[in-house]
Every structure is written in structure tokens, then in C-alpha cells.
Amino acid sequence: MTQEIHGTVADGFEGVREEFAAFVAGERPDYEGQLCAYVHGRKVVDLWAGTEADALYGVFSSAKGAAYLVVALLVQDGTLELDRKVTYYWPEFAAEGKGALTLRELLAHRAGVVGTDTGFTLAELADDRHLAERLADQRPFWRPGTAFGYHALVSGALVGEVVRRATGRTLQEVYQERVRTPYGLDLHLGLPASDEPRFRPTQAMAPTPEQQAVLDATPDGPHTLASIAFNRNAAEPTDLAALPNMPLVRAKGPASVGGVASARGLAGMYAAAISEVGQQAPLLKPDTVAEFGQFHSVGYDLVARAHKSFGLGFQTTADTWHPFLGAGTIGHSGGSGSQAFADPWSGLAYGYTRRRFAFPGGAAAENDRLARAIHKAALAA
Question: What is the pTM of this model?
Fold first, then answer.
């Protein structure tokens, strides 16, 4: 039985509803997901299927966008300087040959500390301070600054420690004060107990036989860079899909992977970043957006073992996922299939969430057709 499509679209965006309905009709009967978009600060798409309008989902690495937005704000303020060495803020990070790394390189996934030799406990993964303490002493897995690889579970903790040393406050506290609260965003780095009833636990991936064959053929030894980056080398290897289902992770909100959100929250954050929303000025100036969206690491990602590209923290979404978007688009996907971004050229801010973990992880395939439909309508508006 096909899920009913709920919600609204603005005039001119009717085709987006049709595209969402066509996608959902081809999905499993238990599909749950949400789609939201703004154009120049105006909400134009607000749709959902198989769930409630205000349901919250684990959005995994889409939470990183909130972390990098905080860093961008602090750089814009002058509190942080991109070309300062990380050790200027965090002296202990100099251990094991990491002393020359700059904040710019750290943000661009060039530090080489994607994990630790022995992995992390769940308590450490849930707590960015604990992660930072472990990572400060870790020998990098490549010479810092010479290559890049996705720091999947630790990038939020690394930049978060810089934020804490520079401001005396956690990244989560700065995000709450400057971003989430002023805009009433349903994107949480630390889910309040009062919102727990709205959380929908992540469902495990359900690959087809063909997809399972691809997964089985992927090199996955416990000491590969990918396994270290995703904590599969720990005494208790991490089941990534299960992380947001753990109350400790939801409560602490580790900035790399612990965010809980709706599509409205994801899209609303990126709308606030680049556009006037509710008579509030954009959080970021155009020059800040341009610098954080500029290519900084492009080529072979040592962790993903594939071509990838990053700006300053943010995925350069137009290269990584959606080539129809404007150059300098900033965003981030999440393992469950979530996706969120801001395209400064079209003024489009996009958010998508789904409950079931996507194959093979990262932005689910449907994001391309959904984002393309919204982008087309935005350009015609």
C-alpha cells in the first residue's frame, strides 16, 4: 500500500509534490520520510509520508553542517582564524607530529586523525570532549596536510575542541544560542528529554540481494582506514545505523554524527545561513559562504577510497552529489540518507530525512531527483 503524501507546496512547486509522490510509490510500504525547502528565505516545500509532520530522525553526518556553521560564524566574528595553527587554540594537539596543522586544514579533513589505533567506547563516541582527549595523543594515519580523508566520527569533536578552547563554551552551546534557539530549529545537537516522544528510531538498511553483494565485496578488515574511521576496530565495533537509537548519543549530541532533526530543521538552518528568514538577516555574509564553499580538498579520499571533495568542513555538494547546483553550494549528507544544503546562487535551502538507513550510506539516491525538481522550480519562480 502506497503511503499518502502530506503537506504543502507553494505555487509553482506542484511538480515537486508529484516527484515526491512518484518516488514514495516505488518505495517499501513502510517508508517514512520528510522533504522541506526554502527559496530566498521563503518556505516553498513542506512534505512528508508515513510519519507525523513533527517527527524527528537521526540525521547522522548531516549534523556536521551545524558544527561547521558555528565555526563559520566564529571565523566571521574574528574569534577564530583559519590560518592559525590548531595548537594556538589547543596546544596538546601538537603530539605525534600534528603541530603544524592549521584550522583551515583541520576543517578540510587533512589532519589524518580519523580515529585511534584501538577505537572508542560508546561513552567516548557520545562525548566530544572524550573524543578530543583521545585524538590529541593519536599519531596521524597520514602526514598532516599532505592528503585528505573523511573524518567521519571525529571531525565535530576536533573542531569542537577548538571552539571550546577559543570561547570557553562547547560547540553545542554556541549552536544552541546563536542558531537553534533564534530560529526555533528542529535540529538538535543534544535532544531535550521533552522531545524524546517525537523521535523515530532509525531502521536498519534493507539491501536487495544485488546491493548486499556489493556490500560483501567491499574490503572491510578491522584495520583499514575506513574501519578505523567508522570505529569498526574497537573492542565493540560500532553499528553506525544504531548510533542515534542510543539515548546517550541523542542526549549528548556529538557534532559528527549525533544530530536529531526534521527536514524542516535541516532546511531551516541552511535558509538562515544564506537568506533573510523572518526579518532576521542571514547568519553568514556572502564572503563567508564563498570561503567555506571554496574547494579545499579534491581528489582521492583515503577513507572513502573514491573521488570526493570538501570545502571548509562542508561537502562541496555541487561536486559531490548534485552537479546542477551552483558552485560554492555548502551542505552535508548523513548515513541514513539525509541530505541538506544551501545554494547561494539560487537561494535554495534543502532538507531531507528518512527513517530507514540508506544503501550504501550517505545521501540516499532519491535526493538527486527531489533536489533537481526543487531546483528547477526555484529557477522558474
Answer: 0.97
